[in-house]
Every structure is written in structure tokens, then in C-alpha cells.
Amino acid sequence: MASSDPLTNLPIDVEKLVTQLRHKEGTWIEWGKACQALQKSGLKPQQIFEQTGFEPPQQNQVIVGAQVYD
């Protein structure tokens, strides 16, 4: 399923991001960006948790951490 990022209007590959998070591929910074992109695409934190195992508080931590890192 593809969606678009409201900030850049570029397509988001939701399935790719979900798979990346499910397998914990990449760095925690990439996880934060993936969580944020999924939330902005319309997925609720609970839905992301059910598909990836990243609990909503953990999603918030990596999102904020990635923003601070950037």
C-alpha cells in the first residue's frame, strides 16, 4: 500500500516501512523516521504496534530522538 508524505508529497511505501520496523532493520534514527512517516500516512500508533511490535511510547521516543538528532 502506498501513501504520500504530506510534507514532501513523495510516495511512502508503507509495507516497506512496516517490514523495516518489524525486522528492526537500520538504525534507531531510521526507525523514528519510519514511525513518523507511518503516523503521517494515517496509521494510528496502535496499528503500527500491532504490525511492527513498536509500542506507542517507544514510537514517540524514537520519533523525538530522530528529530533531535537531525
Structural write-up:
It is a single chain. The chain has helices spanning 14-22, 28-40, 45-52, 56-69, and strands at 2-4, 11-13. It is globular and about 25 Å long. Helix 1 packs antiparallel against helix 2 (28-40) and helix 2 (28-40) crosses helix 4 (56-69). The model has no long low-confidence stretch (mean pLDDT 90). The chain is mainly α. It is built from 4 helices and 2 strands, in the order E-E-H-H-H-H. A two-stranded antiparallel sheet has the order 1-2. It is 63% helix and 9% strand.
Beta-strand level of the residues, as a percent range?
5-15%
Cα separation of the termini: 28 Å
Largest sheet, spatial ordering of strands: 1-2
**Main sheet summary:** 2 strands, antiparallel
Residue share in helices? 55-70%
Give the C-alpha Rg: 11 Å
Q: What attributes does this structure have?
A:
single chain, 70 residues, mainly alpha, two-stranded antiparallel sheet, 2 strands, 63% helix
SSE order and pairing:
Layout: E1 2-4, E2 11-13, H1 14-22, H2 28-40, H3 45-52, H4 56-69
Antiparallel strand pairs: 1-2
In short:
Helix content is 63%, strand content 9%. It has 70 residues and is mainly α.
